[in-house]
Amino acid sequence: MSTLKENIWKKRGNFSSEEIIELAQQAATTEAFAEILLQRNVLTAEQAKTFLRPEINQLLDPFGLKDMDKAISRLISAKEKNEKILVYGDYDVDGTTAVAVFYSFLKHEGFECDFYIPDRYKEGYGFSTAGVEFAHENNFSLIVTLDCGIKDGPRIEQCNEYGIDVIVCDHHTPEILPPAFAVVNPKRTDCTYENKGLCGCAVGFKVICAWFIHHNEPLDFAYSFLDLVAVATGADIVPVTPENRVLLHFGLKEINTHFRPGIAELLTNAKHSGKVLKVVDLVFLLAPRINAAGRIFSGKRAVEVLVAQNSEDAKVVAAEIEKNNYERKGLDRNITQEALDIIAVDPFYEDSFTTVVKKEGWHKGVVGIVASRIIESYYKPTIVLTEEDGILSGSVRSIEGIDVYDMLSACEEHLIQFGGHSMAAGLKLKSENFIAFREAFDKVVRKFTNDIRIERCHFYDTEIQFDQITFALYESLQPLEPHGPENLRPVFLSKNIKNARFTKLVGAHADHLQLHVKQAGNMAEMKGIAFKMKDWVFPVLEGKEIDLLFQLNENVWNGQSSIQLEVLDIRLSA
């Protein structure tokens, strides 16, 4: 038992019974559901109605974004003069979906245009010099950057020298605004737009909406892109707060009713069951495949499959992307094991607050995924770097409560360049600076946490008894979707649980725990699955009482439906 580490469990909020009862009565719902709403900052019956029944008219006015009027006036001028426009975007899901959306919009409106996705390995992240030269050599007079550009002032200055205007559509935090014709970014300090959490694709979508609003035209065509906006919003892990919730809600409706050829082919290759797509499917089925194109071969292929007009064209590209994704999985698995082996023998990591590993030859396209995998084993901010020609480049992933962008900023003297978000970033440094940077990064994180190690923490919404777990409860939770940061799937706590009939290990590697459990003093028996928790089989078999944190799933077997616990964590009862 000493080998089983128990994580910290915390309740999301601490609302009084009076507050819970009052909202339950106002909204005509159960106290358990009322508490879940309160955890999501839904405090009144009116707010509950808006939250649970999103309407498309809840989308904010795109002209509330700073420089939107300038962006639209420049596009109008480009249309009148028949100028060539280059749509430039990053090679990840957010960037490629944004390019697919904006390029398709320009083609529909009769613009002369093309798109450009930088090579991850030759050009790196952001607006590249090669991209600028491509635009100049091919007589483009306007560039629209999507999901990048905010930190690319020197390249934009180069565009200005060439007489090329740039409209930056980005969502990364700016330090100094680049000298672009227009900068549309909700995170500008002088931008009063309420939703600071738009993904890059959504920023481009807002420009499209502004175009049609300016021309007094209906927004139906703009809304046809909500499927790709939803994919990007889900994949980029942005907060599912009011406007993003609307984008996801109607994006899921769009993707489930009007499959664009490329999405249909990607799902076929993913062996999607045909059930209604949810955010989890966007994140774990579609996003990895769209990402795989840029990780292994070229992000251009991702755009090509998303803008394909028929299944024949989409099928060919989707098949290539599926091969990319298969290769990505193998690289991910092998490099993760190599990184874990390095960590296991290096004494630095025994008391470090961070993990920073490197090796020559690791594939650049998967180092971010590997960093996330390492966090599953060692809960620390993690950097995975690959070495080539004396330069280390790679990705950073963080844990709850630590802004890695700020941490990198504090030791940027060791870096050639860096950029990203609070939870994920990219960086580049000289190989000779590795030890100094590793120590500096660890020192900065240690200082930020006041030398107190951040432990993995599981949050739950409310405690319930097994006899409260019914189909009625499960159905009542469905309007809470779509889920994501700040609106995660509800997590429940139940205490004093005992093995009812049998417990066994399942899965290809026998590392998942299948449970049939009862609660003390309760006749209801529940079935559950605890992924990668095989070590808990012995205390359960020994008959010890345990507490469970879980989410609720519907399980269909032989045509029969039942509610199953998806166990997130286990601890021994106090």
Keywords:
single chain; 574 residues; alpha/beta; OB fold (Dihydrolipoamide Acetyltransferase, E2P); inorganic pyrophosphatase (n-terminal core); Diaminopimelate Epimerase, Chain A, domain 1; 5-stranded parallel beta sheet; 18 strands; 41% helix; 21% strand; globular
Question: Could you characterize the architecture of this molecule?
Answer:
With 574 residues, this protein is α/β, with parallel strands linked by helices. Among the domains are: 8-15 and 458-572, OB fold (Dihydrolipoamide Acetyltransferase, E2P) (Beta Barrel); 62-222, Alpha-Beta Complex (inorganic pyrophosphatase (n-terminal core)); 346-448, Diaminopimelate Epimerase, Chain A, domain 1 (Roll), CATH 3.10.310. 41% of the residues lie in helices and 21% in strands. β13 (462-463), α19 and β14 (492-506) form a beta-alpha-beta unit. The radius of gyration is 25 Å and the shape is globular. 45% of the residues are buried. The mean pLDDT is 93.
Short account of what is shown:
The protein has 574 residues and is α/β, with parallel strands linked by helices. The protein has helices at residues 17-26, 31-39, 45-52, 68-80, 93-108, 129-137, 153-162, 200-214, 220-223, 226-235, 242-257, 261-269, 279-297, 299-307, 311-345, 367-377, 404-409, 434-448, 471-477, 537-541, and strands spanning 8-11, 84-89, 112-116, 142-146, 165-169, 182-184, 355-360, 382-388, 391-397, 417-420, 424-430, 457-460, 462-463, 492-506, 512-519, 525-530, 546-557, 560-572. It is globular and about 75 Å long.
